[in-house]
């Protein structure tokens, strides 16, 4: 024998609202209590940086070229495990250092150079290409790592 229950619309809405409240509460409690998965995801940062070249001419017709890290500024959080992948698009090679982090490596054309470190020092640190760090090539090839 099947019995048919007839629910009024207001009862259905009430149950729906109660269900939504329980769901939101459960989600809130789980996000407050389980800090491991959320912080594990936030504790890493990975960036891809292209090494590119721009060319230009002065009004007098003199040609010049500059190399850039693109993006030129990288923002990470203090304590994050950071991976920077440098992709060599233009220029044969760019030996670089990251000030304050004792990091030294070289980006080569057509290759990817990855550096990994823990962002354990706060501040703004220059990423300097030591082959193009002079103002003689119009703009020195310098990027910035900002650790907040
Ligand atoms: Cu360079």
From TrEMBL:
Q: Where are the transmembrane segments?
A: 12-29
Q: Which Gene3D superfamilies match?
A: Cupredoxins - blue copper proteins
Please give the Pfam families that the UniProt record associates with this protein: Cupredoxin_1
Q: Does the keyword Transmembrane helix apply?
A: yes
Source taxon at top rank: Bacteria
Q: Could you tell me the keywords of this UniProt record?
A: Membrane, Transmembrane, Transmembrane helix
Q: Does the keyword Transmembrane apply?
A: yes
Domain called EfeO-type cupredoxin-like: residue spans = 23-134
InterPro entries per record: Cupredoxin, EfeO_Cupredoxin
Q: What is this protein called?
A: EfeO-type cupredoxin-like domain-containing protein
């Amino acid at each position: 024998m099947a019995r048919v229950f007839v629910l009024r619309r207001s009862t259905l809405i009430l149950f729906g609202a109660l269900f939504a409240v329980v769901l939101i509460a459960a989600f809130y409690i789980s996000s407050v209590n389980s800090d491991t998965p959320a912080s594990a995801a936030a504790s890493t940062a990975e960036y891809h940086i292209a090494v590119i070249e721009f060319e230009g001419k002065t009004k007098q017709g003199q040609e010049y070229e500059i190399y850039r890290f693109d993006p030129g500024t990288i923002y990470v959080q203090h304590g994050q495990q950071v991976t920077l992948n440098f992709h060599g698009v233009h220029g044969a090679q760019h030996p670089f250092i990251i000030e304050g982090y004792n990091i030294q490596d070289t980006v080569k054309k057509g290759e990817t150079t990855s550096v990994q470190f823990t962002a354990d020092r706060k501040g703004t640190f220059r990423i300097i290409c030591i082959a193009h760090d002079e103002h003689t090539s119009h703009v020195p090839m310098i990027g910035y790592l900002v650790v907040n």
